[in-house]
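Here's a chain:
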Amino acid sequence: MRPVLIDLGGIEIPAYGVMLAISFLTALWYVRRKAPSFDVSPLAIENLAFYVMLGVIIGGRLLYAAFHWQQYEHDILGIFRIWEGGMMFFGGLLGGFLLGALYLRRQRIPVLKISDIAAPSMALGLFFTRIGCFLNGCCFGVPSKLPWSVEFPENCVAGASPVGGLALHPTQLYESIFGLVLFFFLDNRLKNFAGKGVVFAQFVIFYGVFRFGIDFIRYYENSANFWINQIIAVGLVIVGAAIILRVTKQ
């Protein structure tokens, strides 16, 4: 674990911030490269990227702060220090989608078409971002005796938690590997289904099912946070199923 990836004589570059930037830039590269094949201007994707990035940061950070309010109740400005780590994927997904959809509607660009093209990049972003979570020591699992369990150092969130000092499930890496596998699957599906919403629906269904399951071995400070995430995960599955049902009827 390495919360500070590089220390340049007092100038600290956080690992989470670096991986978040890599996640965003890689996703932008992927969608921009795919856009012309589906009659979408790369310039429109570049403009869209700004709103999606803003939505991801705002949504992901606010939901994280709401779930971990004890970290910020005496340090409100800490909410704005996103480079220190602490984002929730559900919040980022919702925030990025909402702001991105508003931009697309204003530009009269089909939302489902762009959602399909972007779906594989979301999975790829999950791969990079969760590596950042692992290096930062957040989003960790419950104690485990499995041979690949990890004991986090004291200088990270996991090490300072009530389960610090114990070997824990590296749930960040589980989710990262899942994101990479899902990326290759969705990238292949994109060739046949882009523009109908099916690829995006498959992303939210698979992630919702995966997240519902992995949360049972992920550490939560209280049961309320666990159940809220479970409800959101089930909601994603329902939304994805509704999109596929609608396309099937058409």
Summary: Residues 72 and 78 are 6 Å apart (CA to CA). The first strand starts at residue 4 and ends at 8. The first helix runs from residue 15 to 34. The beta strands are 4-8, 11-14, 150-151, 167-168.
